[in-house]
Amino acid sequence: MTAKFDFARVTQTTVRDLVEIFGPSGVSVDREKVTAYSKDEVALHLWDKEYTADVVCFAENTEQISDLMRYANDKKIPVTPRGAGTGLSGGAVPAFCGIELSLERMNKILEFDMENLTITVEPGVVTAEINKAAADHGLLYAGDPCSGDASFIGGNVAENAGGNKVVKYGPTGNHVLGMEVVLPDGSVTWFGGKRRKDVTGYDFVHLMVGSEGTLGIVTKIILRLLPSSSFVVDLLVPFADVKSAIKAVPAIMTEGKSIPSSIEFIDKQSMLLTEEYLRTKFPFSNEADAHLILQYEGNERERLADEIEKIGDICLKQGALEVFVADNRTVKDKLWKGRKSVAEAVWAHAPIQVSNEDVVIPASAVADFMRELDDICHGAGVKYAAYGHLGDGNMHVTLYLEGETPGWREIIGDVRQKLYTIVIKLEGTLTGEHGVGLKRAAYISQFLDDAQIDLIRRVKLAFDPNNILNPGKIVPWE
Ligand SMILES: Cc1cc2nc3c(=O)[nH]c(=O)nc-3n(C[C@H](O)[C@H](O)[C@H](O)COP(=O)(O)OP(=O)(O)OC[C@H]3O[C@@H](n4cnc5c(N)ncnc54)[C@H](O)[C@@H]3O)c2cc1C
Q: From ligand 1's centre to the CA of 316, what distance in Å?
């Protein structure tokens, strides 16, 4: 199925109409502002052209968004929702100009329900504020993307964000019970609610989760909270070689007889760049080719200590050089600041000639993937830094070139394609948590067959027959 769409441009009359909806302080055509809101964290030089909206609007409530969508649908003007703009796939980048819709002013925690163990929030609440609010009530919100200090919960829902606790608790979608949504024609509906079970109709909650702002605009979210553990211990485990670190994971899970809340991986290059970026040192950064970060939780101190000891022994048996236990706030904070800064550290080192990948490999094939990645990068003279959520097989690979290399786009593009070919051979997939967005839409047909791509287009058009909500994302359109 292909479909052609003719979109209208924003005119002065449109801007006047938008001011009617949002008020004068809710609309801006200031070029600097509009340009800033038309970006996310994908490096600008990766785009083949400049993508800038005509106008940015700042919503304060559901009614305004409903009015906007009714208007935009009628006039055939594209609308691109935007959270905090920390996305890594160009999801919030306006592929066809039009209206950029910022959700940043919808930033209230609306309700804490201690009986149902839920929190209801607006989409512009920063993820870490939800973690903190839950912790203040002795509860856990288990969503934990590395960008959590900046990203919004609406963006997390739209991308089905993963992060550091997925191995035990699952991605954002596992914590979403219900949501209020404005559909592309302006109608407002609720999918799900505070109920723990619900098979009344299709599971629209989990169709919306990960739909990258293409099916509707999420305006309220009900999240599941969990009891929090009394004690949390983090381990930093250096391994001499990458293969031993990867092969340790199944032993940690099976012989350890418990699921850690985190199994994170940092290769040597990522570790050295992070040290340089944060001006700090981590143990064995020169000797180890890979570090794992493991996190364990429990309610009984002694029992947790025994468990940690057992896990330490398993790691040493699997070839770990040492096992460091972070059991106080200062050491923990340093460790997680390190992990959460890896991406920025790599980009600070290689800001231009770069591509960030987010592939997922079945656990049994991650070691093969890393070996083949090393081979192709060496063969092409391209450097890489690899890190990520090893417990989920989700590897972030940043391919980069140092210095000024003529033809760097082609060189990096060629390695990127070879990397995808390996991922397909190993039965992995294109993206685990950053999304397809604009950045990867041209590659999706290598990973999904025609029947599925056609189905994606038909679902999109069932929600949005005029294709005005975030067009140009996930699958290619004519
Ligand atoms: C340093 C760094 C570390 C990161 N670490 C992780 C990580 O560990 N795990 C992970 O999963 N991601 C990670 N990311 C990627 C990014 O933070 C996530 O994708 C995050 O969920 C995006 O949220 P946002 O609010 O910034 O969304 P934006 O970038 O603004 O938008 C993302 C998408 O969501 C849509 N959208 C936003 N709000 C709404 C809404 N209310 N309704 C409908 N659609 C909406 C947009 O249209 C867009 O398609 C990282 C990014 C950076 C820069």
A: 37
**Exposed e or buried b for every residue in 310-324, given b needs 16+ CB within 10 A?**
ebbebbeebebbebb
CATH fold of 350-436: Alpha-Beta Plaits (3.30.70)
Pocket of ligand 1 (CB under 6 A): 40-41, 80-88, 91-92, 103, 123, 145-147, 151-152, 154-156, 158-159, 161-163, 212-213, 217-218, 343-344, 433-434, 470
pLDDT in tens, 322-360: 999 997 899 999 999 999 999 999 999 998 888 999 999
Q: What is the CA radius of gyration of the chain?
A: 23
Mean pLDDT by 10 residues, the chain (478 residues): 79 98 98 97 87 98 98 98 98 97 98 97 98 97 97 98 97 98 98 96 98 98 97 97 96 94 98 98 97 97 96 97 93 96 94 93 96 97 96 96 90 96 98 97 97 97 97 90
Alpha carbons 460 and 1: distance in angstroms, whole number: 12
Nearest to 1 by CA among 454, 446, 455: 454
Ligand 1 mean position, distance from CA 337 (Å) = 19
- At residue 41, what is the residue type? E
* Bridge-based pairing state of the strands 79-82 and 99-102: parallel
CATH level 2 (architecture), domain 109-227: 2-Layer Sandwich (3.30)
Q: Give the distance (Å) from ligand 1 centre to CA of residue 478.
A: 26
213, two tokens: 């702002």
Which CATH number applies to 230-346?
3.30.70.2190
